[in-house]
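During the second year of the project, the team shifted from modelling isolated chains to modelling whole assemblies. The rationale, set out in the original proposal, was that interfaces cannot be judged from single-chain predictions alone. As a representative example for this report, we include one of the complexes processed in the last quarter. Its constituent sequences, exactly as entered into the pipeline, are reproduced here:
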Amino acid sequence: MDTLRFITCGSVDDGKSTLIGRLLYETKLIFEDQLEALKADSKKFGTQGERLDFALLVDGLQAEREQGITIDVAYRFFATPRRRFIVADTPGHEQYTRNMATGASTAQAAVLLIDARKGVLVQTKRHSRIVSMLGIRHVALAVNKMDLVDWSQLVFDEIELAYRRFAQDLGFETIAAIPLSALEGHNVVDPRHAAMPWYRGQSLLQWLESVPTEGREAAQPFAMPVQWVNRPNLDFRGFSGRVGSGSVKPGDSVRVSPSGVTSRVKEIVVGTGSIAAATAGQSVTLVLEDEVDASRGDVIAVASNPVESADQFEADLLWMSEHALLPGRPYAALIHTKSASVSITHIKHRLDINSGAHLAAKTLGLNEIATVNVSFDRSVPFAPYKENKRLGAFIVIDKLTNETVGAAIIHFALRRAVNVHWQALEVTKTVRAEMKHQQARCLWFTGLSGSGKSTVANLLEKRLHADGRHTYILDGDNVRHGLNRDLGFTEADRVENIRRVAEVAKLLVDAGLIVLVAFISPYRAERQLARGLFEDGEFIEVFVDTPLEECERRDVKGLYAKARRGELKNFTGIDSDYEPPESPEIHLRTIASQPEACVDQIVHLLKS
Amino acid sequence: MGGDFSLELESESIEIIREVAATAAKPVMLYSIGKDSSVMLRLAQKAFYPGPIPFPLMHIDTTWKFREMIAFRDRRAAEIGFKLITYTNPRGAAEGIGPITHGSAYHTDVMKTEALKQALDLHGFDVAFGGARRDEEKSRAKERIFSFRAPGHRWEPKVQRPELWNLYNARINTGETIRVFPLSNWTEADVWAYIRQENIPIVPLYFAASRPVVKRYGQWIMVDDHRLPLEPGEKPRTLMVRFRTLGCYPLTAAVESTATTLDEIVAETLGATTSERQGRVIDHDGAGSMERKKQEGYF
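Output from the structure prediction step:
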């Protein structure tokens, strides 16, 4: 018997939880003790007077029952003689959209509830767009609370027409409009036509029993991301994973991406035995004929149709964090079984949830959707999400908090990465640096305003210059007068400020210079980004560690006083965070050491 | 739900178990000896075959488990050869805390929740598997498969990480942990159908047999040893009973049943009119009691 995973979604108070409670009740999935508890709860929290409040069956969190709303997605299970169902009841409030997306990402169909009295609302549209983005192709438009509009065909027809007009570009294969009353039980399980003789279609349950469940993955060529390399002893070496698409049998030729190595399938291990063929969705272990090198994050695919790899993509991104997306900032990402670092290089346009219009955007806020260009720090095997959900979806994770902040689906690879090769130059960085009798380096000074970054950097440059070294200083204030004069002090602008300076420093290091960068650079993620631009050993992070009280006491430029008076916004240490380095190459404690001693410390490290 | 088992569920669970092995620094599988743990154990064997299970199993022993459960546990560890860790809260043991003398709530808090947190901290486990299913209880229906725990093992139900597709965010900072539930999408009927299909050994208490019982809180409580106080003049009755769920013995009630084979158990489960957790005395402490326990660190 097959399983259908579906979601119920829609706006607040459309009756989603009531509908699921009704489905469970009428398919006899509610036990006597649960019914007893429901009766007690209905009296205590219920919103239906003397009647059973079915919503209380699914709203499981205390906060939900107290507030009478759904905060997080709840999974429920029921079955009919024809099919098993896993239903994700998702919240309607806009602020909990990420929980709705959680439920939708694994669903094959969506039941979109509409309150017959209210019609198509903004939240209906938001949910429809997310359902469409995540690749759900079958939608039931459940027009609920028909009892409250006197079972009016006119009302129903208008809603159906309005929705079909709205949804014509969303790529749904089926839209089944069903008038019902979850509270009264009309058209939920049995088609009941007495109240609505004008409707001759399926009940909601009949529709759920007949929606196609097979995904597009089954018909695609074979591909499986390697999840775990199983090598318990010298005699066995298998590649474990869940088949992402197509099917495979022993003897098939396969190719590993991105390495391109080929081999043949020798055996397919499932559990404690072998099987003759594996298909999309199965967890298996593949044993290959040859000793090939493949590891977690690689993809094994049919040799005649290998999986492509790329590092730059166009993708749709749903942002799920209260902290805005910052283009240029490195985030962690997980695509199938591959971990990588990504940054959003360009927001092409943000989607207006209501009208579908494309809007310009520099950043993305909570629950906003945009089409973006994204750059991975390495080449990853992928397929467009439309063809293969498993190979085309990735999540975006904040590197500091480890929160999941974004969900994205790949449209296609940007050819730029493939076609624009670096111009190979014969006069290299090493050659340039050797002519100057030095090793090119980037010394990155970070610390609070007034901590002494510029003082130490200036002294160091004098010392190096006297020693015959070729140097250059990039100073925060000076660069802001020229190259970065267009940037302010918001979080987004600070990220861009550092990105530009890091790129300039990289060019100067390439020229063979010893570059001293003196920037507050408050965020770990951006310093990490800067470090990532350089070769191993080239980047030296110098933490100028002066306590805030001391910086404020010195207040050389009078900035702290201004910030305290509220005349200066986003001032690091006052109303903007400073994230100290966790393991800097050099840690200068300026309270304990004079500037000259600090310089000695750096020179010592440079010489060693 | 004609007792068929869905292969998709098995594949999903194996994927989850492998994902933990691939990403966690020091994972452990909580083993409660019950039917769900038995299924989870079989899935772990399958996930890594022909290799061994690459993490230990841990049993939090409240000292009030049925004797047959402890015997079964040790027998399975010897047969399969997995690494078994057992842990009992030393404070609770020293103070002689038990469900009869101290009440079910306090006993569960000290001997299960507190003990579990101590054991996880003691060994430095960063990820712990649990056999909980979403169909068991309302707050469980809301929990993620990879369920993030703040330092101190607290669950914050209102701010769970989004969990899209089969992409599990396993990244944590020092002091944070993750509970992982590979059986999240299984139902009680799935568990029994799988046990039957795979012929998985389970504690004999799940099968009906003549056992000594007394009536407590309107439910049949088995007299497993001398620690259950009897009313003056009370004599245990011998009834054909079995357990749908197994916990601490005075806190888990038996049901009258004649099901002595897996087929009969599956048939009985499909026709059941009450939920399995009805036999769990602690769930009736009040609406939301499970959510509260979970927030405090209970599995």
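The longest strand of chain A covers residues 338-351. Residues 417-424 of chain A have pLDDT under 50 and may be disordered.
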